[in-house]
Specification:
This protein has 12 helices and 8 strands. With 303 residues, the chain is of the alpha/beta class.
Length: 303
Protein backbone atom coordinates (compact mmCIF):
# COMPACT_ATOMS: atom_id res chain seq x y z
CA UNK A 1 0.00 0.00 0.00
CA UNK A 2 1.27 3.50 -0.83
CA UNK A 3 2.66 5.15 2.37
CA UNK A 4 0.54 8.28 1.91
CA UNK A 5 -2.59 6.15 1.66
CA UNK A 6 -1.55 4.24 4.78
CA UNK A 7 -1.20 7.51 6.68
CA UNK A 8 -4.64 8.72 5.57
CA UNK A 9 -6.28 5.44 6.53
CA UNK A 10 -4.50 5.33 9.87
CA UNK A 11 -5.53 8.89 10.66
CA UNK A 12 -9.11 8.20 9.62
CA UNK A 13 -9.22 5.07 11.77
CA UNK A 14 -7.82 6.91 14.78
CA UNK A 15 -10.34 9.70 14.35
CA UNK A 16 -13.17 7.19 13.99
CA UNK A 17 -12.17 5.57 17.29
CA UNK A 18 -12.02 8.97 18.95
CA UNK A 19 -15.41 9.93 17.52
CA UNK A 20 -16.93 6.71 18.81
CA UNK A 21 -15.84 7.50 22.35
CA UNK A 22 -16.05 11.26 22.42
CA UNK A 23 -19.79 11.24 23.04
CA UNK A 24 -19.01 10.16 26.58
CA UNK A 25 -16.88 13.22 27.27
CA UNK A 26 -17.73 16.02 24.85
CA UNK A 27 -20.87 17.69 23.49
CA UNK A 28 -22.92 15.88 20.84
CA UNK A 29 -22.18 18.66 18.36
CA UNK A 30 -18.45 18.04 18.66
CA UNK A 31 -19.04 14.32 18.17
CA UNK A 32 -20.81 15.11 14.88
CA UNK A 33 -18.03 17.53 13.95
CA UNK A 34 -15.43 14.83 14.42
CA UNK A 35 -17.39 12.44 12.21
CA UNK A 36 -17.44 15.09 9.48
CA UNK A 37 -13.74 15.76 9.94
CA UNK A 38 -13.06 12.04 9.71
CA UNK A 39 -14.84 11.87 6.37
CA UNK A 40 -12.82 14.78 5.02
CA UNK A 41 -9.57 13.32 6.32
CA UNK A 42 -10.43 10.02 4.65
CA UNK A 43 -10.95 11.71 1.30
CA UNK A 44 -14.73 12.27 1.31
CA UNK A 45 -15.26 15.88 0.26
CA UNK A 46 -18.40 17.92 1.02
CA UNK A 47 -20.13 18.72 -2.28
CA UNK A 48 -23.43 20.02 -3.61
CA UNK A 49 -25.46 17.74 -5.87
CA UNK A 50 -28.48 19.53 -7.29
CA UNK A 51 -30.25 20.97 -4.24
CA UNK A 52 -28.68 18.43 -1.87
CA UNK A 53 -25.58 18.62 0.27
CA UNK A 54 -23.51 15.46 0.16
CA UNK A 55 -20.16 13.81 0.77
CA UNK A 56 -18.32 12.41 -2.22
CA UNK A 57 -15.35 10.07 -2.30
CA UNK A 58 -13.85 8.88 -5.56
CA UNK A 59 -11.35 6.11 -6.23
CA UNK A 60 -11.72 6.56 -9.99
CA UNK A 61 -8.79 7.15 -12.32
CA UNK A 62 -8.93 9.27 -15.46
CA UNK A 63 -9.45 7.13 -18.54
CA UNK A 64 -10.59 4.06 -16.60
CA UNK A 65 -14.19 2.86 -15.98
CA UNK A 66 -15.88 4.56 -13.04
CA UNK A 67 -18.93 3.19 -11.22
CA UNK A 68 -21.23 5.61 -9.38
CA UNK A 69 -22.79 4.66 -6.02
CA UNK A 70 -25.39 6.74 -4.15
CA UNK A 71 -26.15 6.22 -0.45
CA UNK A 72 -29.52 7.44 0.90
CA UNK A 73 -30.26 7.82 4.62
CA UNK A 74 -33.55 7.27 6.43
CA UNK A 75 -35.96 9.45 8.37
CA UNK A 76 -34.32 11.54 11.09
CA UNK A 77 -30.86 10.47 9.92
CA UNK A 78 -28.14 12.12 7.79
CA UNK A 79 -25.46 11.19 5.29
CA UNK A 80 -23.11 10.57 8.23
CA UNK A 81 -24.81 7.21 8.77
CA UNK A 82 -22.75 5.91 5.82
CA UNK A 83 -19.33 6.93 7.17
CA UNK A 84 -18.15 3.33 7.55
CA UNK A 85 -19.00 2.51 3.95
CA UNK A 86 -17.39 5.73 2.72
CA UNK A 87 -14.10 5.09 4.53
CA UNK A 88 -14.06 1.43 5.50
CA UNK A 89 -13.71 0.25 9.07
CA UNK A 90 -15.49 -1.85 11.69
CA UNK A 91 -15.34 -4.86 9.38
CA UNK A 92 -16.12 -2.99 6.17
CA UNK A 93 -13.43 -2.69 3.51
CA UNK A 94 -12.93 0.75 1.94
CA UNK A 95 -14.55 1.35 -1.46
CA UNK A 96 -12.69 -0.53 -4.19
CA UNK A 97 -10.86 1.17 -7.02
CA UNK A 98 -12.99 2.67 -9.76
CA UNK A 99 -15.91 3.85 -7.63
CA UNK A 100 -17.38 7.30 -7.01
CA UNK A 101 -19.48 7.26 -3.83
CA UNK A 102 -22.01 9.98 -3.03
CA UNK A 103 -23.74 10.02 0.38
CA UNK A 104 -26.56 12.57 0.18
CA UNK A 105 -28.48 14.57 2.76
CA UNK A 106 -32.13 14.49 1.72
CA UNK A 107 -34.18 17.75 1.57
CA UNK A 108 -34.12 19.90 4.68
CA UNK A 109 -31.30 17.89 6.27
CA UNK A 110 -27.81 19.09 7.18
CA UNK A 111 -27.47 21.84 4.58
CA UNK A 112 -29.77 20.48 1.87
CA UNK A 113 -32.46 22.86 0.63
CA UNK A 114 -35.91 22.31 2.12
CA UNK A 115 -38.66 20.95 -0.10
CA UNK A 116 -42.18 22.16 -0.82
CA UNK A 117 -43.27 18.50 -0.93
CA UNK A 118 -41.88 15.87 1.45
CA UNK A 119 -43.81 13.00 -0.10
CA UNK A 120 -41.72 9.91 -0.72
CA UNK A 121 -42.04 10.00 -4.49
CA UNK A 122 -41.45 13.75 -4.56
CA UNK A 123 -38.22 13.31 -2.58
CA UNK A 124 -37.14 10.56 -4.97
CA UNK A 125 -37.50 13.09 -7.80
CA UNK A 126 -35.23 15.50 -5.92
CA UNK A 127 -32.75 12.64 -5.52
CA UNK A 128 -32.92 11.89 -9.24
CA UNK A 129 -32.16 15.52 -10.09
CA UNK A 130 -29.14 15.40 -7.78
CA UNK A 131 -27.80 12.20 -9.36
CA UNK A 132 -28.72 12.69 -13.01
CA UNK A 133 -26.38 15.64 -13.52
CA UNK A 134 -23.38 13.80 -12.07
CA UNK A 135 -23.51 10.31 -13.58
CA UNK A 136 -25.77 8.51 -16.09
CA UNK A 137 -25.96 5.15 -14.27
CA UNK A 138 -26.00 4.40 -10.55
CA UNK A 139 -25.97 1.79 -7.86
CA UNK A 140 -28.41 3.23 -5.32
CA UNK A 141 -28.45 1.97 -1.73
CA UNK A 142 -31.05 3.21 0.74
CA UNK A 143 -31.74 2.48 4.40
CA UNK A 144 -35.22 2.58 5.93
CA UNK A 145 -37.11 5.55 4.45
CA UNK A 146 -34.13 6.05 2.14
CA UNK A 147 -34.74 2.56 0.79
CA UNK A 148 -38.35 3.51 0.10
CA UNK A 149 -37.18 6.53 -1.92
CA UNK A 150 -34.54 4.42 -3.68
CA UNK A 151 -37.23 1.93 -4.64
CA UNK A 152 -39.31 4.66 -6.30
CA UNK A 153 -36.20 5.99 -8.02
CA UNK A 154 -35.65 2.54 -9.56
CA UNK A 155 -39.28 2.42 -10.72
CA UNK A 156 -39.36 5.94 -12.17
CA UNK A 157 -35.80 6.09 -13.55
CA UNK A 158 -34.94 2.58 -14.78
CA UNK A 159 -32.35 3.90 -17.20
CA UNK A 160 -30.47 5.55 -14.34
CA UNK A 161 -30.58 2.84 -11.63
CA UNK A 162 -28.65 -0.26 -12.66
CA UNK A 163 -28.36 -1.76 -9.16
CA UNK A 164 -30.61 -1.30 -6.14
CA UNK A 165 -29.61 -2.19 -2.58
CA UNK A 166 -32.44 -2.05 -0.06
CA UNK A 167 -31.08 -1.93 3.48
CA UNK A 168 -33.86 -2.63 6.03
CA UNK A 169 -36.09 -0.61 3.72
CA UNK A 170 -39.52 0.80 4.47
CA UNK A 171 -42.23 1.28 1.86
CA UNK A 172 -44.61 -1.68 2.05
CA UNK A 173 -48.12 -1.86 3.47
CA UNK A 174 -48.03 -2.78 7.14
CA UNK A 175 -51.24 -3.94 8.84
CA UNK A 176 -49.40 -3.99 12.18
CA UNK A 177 -48.65 -0.23 11.84
CA UNK A 178 -45.23 -0.91 13.36
CA UNK A 179 -43.52 1.20 10.70
CA UNK A 180 -46.00 4.05 11.11
CA UNK A 181 -45.50 4.04 14.87
CA UNK A 182 -41.78 4.49 14.31
CA UNK A 183 -42.37 7.39 11.91
CA UNK A 184 -44.63 9.06 14.47
CA UNK A 185 -42.01 8.64 17.16
CA UNK A 186 -39.30 10.27 15.02
CA UNK A 187 -41.59 13.16 14.05
CA UNK A 188 -41.54 14.60 17.58
CA UNK A 189 -39.32 12.43 19.75
CA UNK A 190 -38.88 12.63 23.50
CA UNK A 191 -35.90 11.25 25.38
CA UNK A 192 -37.78 8.16 26.66
CA UNK A 193 -39.09 7.48 23.16
CA UNK A 194 -35.64 7.76 21.61
CA UNK A 195 -34.24 5.40 24.21
CA UNK A 196 -36.97 2.94 23.26
CA UNK A 197 -36.22 3.45 19.56
CA UNK A 198 -32.52 2.78 20.12
CA UNK A 199 -33.37 -0.43 21.95
CA UNK A 200 -35.45 -1.59 18.98
CA UNK A 201 -33.08 -0.34 16.28
CA UNK A 202 -29.91 -2.11 17.42
CA UNK A 203 -29.25 -5.76 18.14
CA UNK A 204 -26.85 -4.49 20.79
CA UNK A 205 -27.94 -0.93 21.71
CA UNK A 206 -25.13 1.56 22.02
CA UNK A 207 -24.80 3.18 25.45
CA UNK A 208 -25.51 6.91 25.35
CA UNK A 209 -24.86 9.11 28.40
CA UNK A 210 -27.83 11.01 29.79
CA UNK A 211 -26.24 14.39 29.09
CA UNK A 212 -26.11 13.63 25.34
CA UNK A 213 -29.81 12.89 24.84
CA UNK A 214 -31.11 16.50 24.74
CA UNK A 215 -28.76 17.36 21.87
CA UNK A 216 -29.68 14.14 20.04
CA UNK A 217 -33.36 15.05 20.33
CA UNK A 218 -32.73 18.64 19.19
CA UNK A 219 -30.79 17.38 16.18
CA UNK A 220 -33.60 15.07 15.04
CA UNK A 221 -36.23 17.75 15.61
CA UNK A 222 -34.24 20.15 13.40
CA UNK A 223 -34.85 17.82 10.44
CA UNK A 224 -38.13 17.65 8.49
CA UNK A 225 -39.37 14.50 10.22
CA UNK A 226 -42.79 15.97 11.04
CA UNK A 227 -43.25 17.18 7.46
CA UNK A 228 -42.32 13.74 6.12
CA UNK A 229 -44.82 12.06 8.44
CA UNK A 230 -47.55 14.47 7.35
CA UNK A 231 -46.80 13.70 3.70
CA UNK A 232 -46.90 9.90 4.01
CA UNK A 233 -49.66 8.36 1.93
CA UNK A 234 -50.75 4.89 0.87
CA UNK A 235 -50.41 6.09 -2.73
CA UNK A 236 -46.64 5.91 -2.23
CA UNK A 237 -46.38 2.32 -0.99
CA UNK A 238 -44.38 0.07 -3.29
CA UNK A 239 -46.28 -3.24 -3.06
CA UNK A 240 -47.89 -3.06 -6.50
CA UNK A 241 -44.82 -1.52 -8.15
CA UNK A 242 -42.11 -3.96 -7.05
CA UNK A 243 -42.65 -5.87 -10.30
CA UNK A 244 -41.63 -2.72 -12.18
CA UNK A 245 -38.13 -2.64 -10.66
CA UNK A 246 -35.77 -3.69 -13.45
CA UNK A 247 -32.50 -3.06 -11.64
CA UNK A 248 -30.40 -5.88 -10.23
CA UNK A 249 -31.51 -5.85 -6.60
CA UNK A 250 -30.05 -6.97 -3.28
CA UNK A 251 -32.21 -6.84 -0.16
CA UNK A 252 -30.01 -6.53 2.93
CA UNK A 253 -31.77 -7.14 6.22
CA UNK A 254 -30.56 -6.93 9.80
CA UNK A 255 -32.51 -9.82 11.28
CA UNK A 256 -32.72 -8.25 14.75
CA UNK A 257 -34.59 -5.18 13.44
CA UNK A 258 -37.55 -4.39 15.69
CA UNK A 259 -38.35 -1.09 13.95
CA UNK A 260 -39.86 -2.60 10.78
CA UNK A 261 -41.76 -5.89 10.42
CA UNK A 262 -39.45 -8.82 9.70
CA UNK A 263 -41.71 -9.89 6.85
CA UNK A 264 -40.68 -6.88 4.78
CA UNK A 265 -37.40 -8.60 3.85
CA UNK A 266 -39.06 -11.57 2.16
CA UNK A 267 -41.77 -9.43 0.56
CA UNK A 268 -39.18 -7.18 -1.10
CA UNK A 269 -37.12 -10.15 -2.25
CA UNK A 270 -40.15 -12.02 -3.60
CA UNK A 271 -41.73 -8.98 -5.26
CA UNK A 272 -38.66 -7.86 -7.24
CA UNK A 273 -37.73 -10.27 -10.00
CA UNK A 274 -34.34 -11.89 -9.38
CA UNK A 275 -33.71 -10.07 -6.11
CA UNK A 276 -31.14 -11.57 -3.75
CA UNK A 277 -31.82 -11.56 0.00
CA UNK A 278 -28.92 -11.16 2.43
CA UNK A 279 -30.00 -11.55 6.07
CA UNK A 280 -27.53 -10.53 8.76
CA UNK A 281 -27.88 -12.24 12.11
CA UNK A 282 -27.45 -10.22 15.32
CA UNK A 283 -27.85 -6.95 13.41
CA UNK A 284 -30.59 -4.35 13.68
CA UNK A 285 -32.28 -1.61 11.68
CA UNK A 286 -29.07 0.27 10.80
CA UNK A 287 -26.75 -2.39 9.38
CA UNK A 288 -24.53 0.26 7.79
CA UNK A 289 -23.56 1.26 11.32
CA UNK A 290 -23.89 -1.93 13.34
CA UNK A 291 -22.52 -4.49 10.85
CA UNK A 292 -21.22 -2.59 7.82
CA UNK A 293 -19.15 -5.41 6.32
CA UNK A 294 -22.02 -7.30 4.62
CA UNK A 295 -23.57 -4.00 3.55
CA UNK A 296 -20.33 -2.90 1.90
CA UNK A 297 -20.07 -6.23 0.09
CA UNK A 298 -23.66 -5.89 -1.16
CA UNK A 299 -23.11 -2.32 -2.32
CA UNK A 300 -19.60 -2.51 -3.77
CA UNK A 301 -19.16 -6.21 -4.41
CA UNK A 302 -16.13 -5.87 -2.12
CA UNK A 303 -14.35 -9.01 -0.87
Amino acid sequence: MIPAVKRVLAAAAALAVLAAGVLWFLPFELHVGLLKAGLRLGGAAPVTAGSLSAYERSTCVAGAPCRCVALVHGMGDTALTWNKLMLGGDGAPPPPAGVRVLAVNMPGTDGSAPSADYGIRAQSRVLRAALEARCPRWTVAGNSLGGWMAGWLAVDWPQGVERLVLVNAAGLTDPTEQALATARLLAAPTIPEMKAFSARAYAVPKPVPERAWPAVIASIRSRPTAAILAALTLDDVLDARLKDVKAETVVVWGASDRVLPAGFAGRFAKGIRGAKLVEIAACGHLPQQECPGPVARAVFGAP
